[in-house]
Design a protein that fits this description.
Largest sheet: none
Strand content: under 5%
Low-confidence stretches: none
Shape: flat
Structural class: mainly alpha
Helix content: over 70%
Number of strands: 0
Number of helices: 3
Number of domains: 1
Distance between the termini: 12 Å
Order of helices and strands: HHH
Length: 95
C-alpha cells in the first residue's frame, strides 16, 4: 500500500473517531452525565463540534425530519467508510 494512501486511510479513520466521540459526548452532556460547566470537557466538545458540523449540516439539509432523532452522524460514518473502501480499491498500484 502506498504511503500516501495509508496516510489518507488513517486520516479518515481518525475523523470517524472524532465523529463518534462527538456523538457520545453530546449525549453525555444532554443526559447530564457530564457536567457542561467543566471548561475542559466543554472545549473538547466545541472542538469536536467545529470539526464535524460542516459535513453534518450539509447532510442534515437533505435528510427528512425523524422526530428529534438525528441520523446524520451515522450516514456520515457510512459515507466515510464507503469513500475509504473506494479509495483503497481504485488507488493506482505500482508494478
Amino acid at each position: 500500500m502506498n504511503s500516501l494512501l495509508l496516510f489518507l486511510v488513517r486520516l479518515l479513520d481518525f475523523y470517524t473517531l472524532i465523529v463518534f466521540f462527538y456523538v457520545v459526548v453530546s449525549w453525555l452532556f444532554h443526559f447530564n452525565i457530564l457536567n457542561s460547566q467543566n471548561v475542559f470537557l466543554w472545549r473538547v466538545f466545541e472542538s469536536f463540534k467545529k470539526l464535524t458540523d460542516p459535513p453534518l449540516n450539509y447532510i442534515r439539509r437533505y435528510l427528512p425530519n425523524f422526530g428529534g432523532i438525528d441520523i446524520s452522524p451515522v450516514l456520515l460514518i457510512l459515507l466515510i467508510y464507503l469513500f475509504k473502501d473506494l479509495l483503497i480499491e481504485y488507488w493506482p498500484r505500482g508494478q
